[in-house]
Amino acid sequence: MGVVTDHLATNRGLGQRLPQAGKNTFVIWASCYRPVDLFTLEKTSRAFFMTKVRRRFADCRYGQLLIREVNPGNGIPLLCLHATAYSSRSFLPLMKAYGDRRHVLAIDAPGYGESDGPQHPVSIAEYAAAIAESLPYNVFDIFGYHTGVVLGVELAIRKPTAVKSVTFMGVPYFAPLGFQAWKARLAKAHHLSDDLEQFQERWQWLVTDRPKGMSLERAFDNFVDELRAWPQGYWAHRALFEYDCEARFPRLQQPVKVLNPASHLADASRLAAQLFPRAECIELPAMSGGALEVNAAELAELIG
Fold first, then answer.
1. What's residue 23's pLDDT?
2. What are the backbone dihedrals phi and psi of residue 27, each rounded to the nearest 5 degrees, phi first?
3. Of the given ranges (46-55, 59-68, 220-229, 288-297), which has the lowest mean pLDDT?
4. Residue among 293, 292, 39, 278 nearest 166 (CA)
5. Rounded distance between C-alpha atoms, residue 271 and residue 176, angstroms
6. Helices 147-158 and 124-133, interaxial angle, to 10°?
7. 17, 42 in Cβ contact below 8 A?
8. Domains of the chain by range and CATH?
9. Which one, of 6, 1, 4, lies nearest residue 285 by Cα?
10. pTM score of the predicted model
11. Phi/psi-derived region of residue 111, left when phi > 0, alpha when psi is between -120 and 50, beta in every other case
12. What string of DSSP letters covers 147-169?
């Protein structure tokens, strides 16, 4: 049975149903923005600026994967898995928001960022297997965003005793929501040419029309990540649309939190939460695009 939580409403009672929630999905109203005393705020801010993100490489079947991390050895590691066609840089604000509280690492998926990748398109299971080869941990948690969600699902299925808990945001469950249209848009093949115009649409989408609150620098980093992966950058999206969410999601036995900001994937995430056996869907209507940067501190609290 799934649970939906609205973290912005405070005086609405318990056990109500959202109109869009399934018959087995209940709503728990709560407040996520708790008062923070000045000492805690000052300590958190100081930790943010003092947190040092280290970089290292780990071997996998395709070569080496780049790993960014903070506080190695401090508690159960939190593995962050990014969206396509970006990189672990997406999680830098989140990693810094944790300060010195826990070990957080983010991996450039095979073929993205600074990681070596396959020489031909591969499946989500093969991407996840390569990531698993780079992880020496006996126990860890997962935070997956967009494509990182399905990579996280496969890792959790592959390592059921090692993965203790899972948090997802922006679940790419397109099956009930215009699957073919999204596939045509996201999994469209790219071909490198000498015409600069081939990148105009990506610049418009990622930089000019970036989400409100996202810095120009963060948007530019996303654009550069896409250029780095070009023209094979669509491969992971191709694998995503070949992935059977309805068959694989119910196999996840770990507790799952689905963080659900206001976005084009809000409905998809809400529906996907009903497929996980032990899921809580946390509604975050005040968050929107750019949440990984703009709301990093709140996300760190929600993930734990």
1. 38
2. -105, 130
3. 46-55
4. 278
5. 9
6. 60
7. no
8. 3-303 (3.40.50.1820)
9. 6
10. 0.86
11. left
12. HHHHHHHHHHHHSTTTEEEEEEE
